[in-house]
Amino acid sequence: MNRVAVINVVGLTKSQLGEDTPRLNAFVEKCALSAFPPAFPAVTCTAQSSYVTGRSEAEHGIVGNGWYDREAAEHKFWKQSNHIVKGEKVWDVLRRELPGFTCAKLFWWYNMYSTADWSITPRPMYPADGRKVFDVYTHPMGMREEIKADLGEFPFPTFWGPMAGIPCSEWIANSARWVEDRHQPTLSLVYLPHLDYGLQKYGPGAPEMKKELQDIDRVAGELIEYYEQRGIEVILLSEYGISKVSKPIHLNRIFREKGWIIIKDELGLEQLDCGASKAFAIADHQVAHVYLNDMSLLEEVKKTLLEVEGVEEVRMGKELWGEGTPGAERGGDLVAVSEENAWFTYYYWTDDAVAPDYARCIDIHRKPGYDPVELFFDPAIKNPKVKAAKFLLKKKLGFRGLLDVIPLDATLVKGSHGRDKVREDEMPILASTKHGEITKAEDVFQVILEAVRG
């Protein structure tokens, strides 16, 4: 039984390795390096679920970072229970085979209530007085206060939003060392999200990416060296590559023009009523799940999608997921895939004055789709960081308020992902001392098994 650390550097591809990544280059050069087609959709929750189960999206049921729950008539994004992921997990297989095996799952998604021995995941607290208290959730529960006493509070604002940056990945890397020093897991799964932010915000090849690459090279490189010094085999992994984009696609606005979307007036602002709509889109980067409450419109909706500028193809849900699978239960009746330089917004309003209140906020759960514009401060706001600081102070004092600092300009976004048909230099990568052929995301599961088995 070998000890193994899987370091997931999100957004890392062959095209990102270069003069600004000397530590990562040095590791890759002494390894076997594979680029492989990403999971579909090529997004975090789907990719990670394929890696830890060795199953397809149809089988494990994670058809995106979020989807529409037909029974509850609600969209659900960024949920955290590991029970959502169907199939036996890699740590359960190894624990059954190898007496004494243990696993630490550090910031990989679906990290609550898994059977990993140690886990840490971002999880705010929401007291009844309206506050949002930044925090993490850990298993065992007592580890939360112990690790914060040693490392300080998790820098939550740098994990997502306009202030997203290297501090959160530094804290995660430090937490991996902290867990290793105390518990020596057989398998450590470590998620470093930093590179993802700059690539979406600035786009691949932008001048600003030089520092972003240097920062993640330092953090990931130092963590690799730490593990290697302890005789731990390192697997360097990523989930997807990011393409330059310049064309946002507003499917729900098009559906609204067709009369398929139902809008509710709530306190003078517009809310999308998915349960009452005939057809609507749940956007997730370069993929959009389209759900129909009126199946008689299927061919018309498909035809409309194919006529939208920037849509490359439309896949039938039944063909993607099959009948009676977890994927079929959750995935769209139609799945639209954008062209390389385009991506899908969730926007459904036609007048910014009546956009929902959450549109200008960092609100990853309430929005009916992923919103990368949350990475930007509204340029029309003077001193947005001061406004954010005042908001956080109000929250600490128990007052209600909106941190409405996010713009409504989707053209700001310069990078996106989600397509499975991408160039080799934009495919995810895996580097390890040795591994078999990787032809799909599910093969990563076997690589991890074989590395630990020795």
TrEMBL record:
CDD domains: Enpp. Gene3D superfamilies: Alkaline Phosphatase, subunit A. It comes from the Bacteria. SUPFAM superfamilies: Alkaline phosphatase-like. InterPro entries: Alkaline_phosphatase_core_sf, Phosphodiest/P_Trfase. Transmembrane segments: none annotated. This is Alkaline phosphatase family protein.
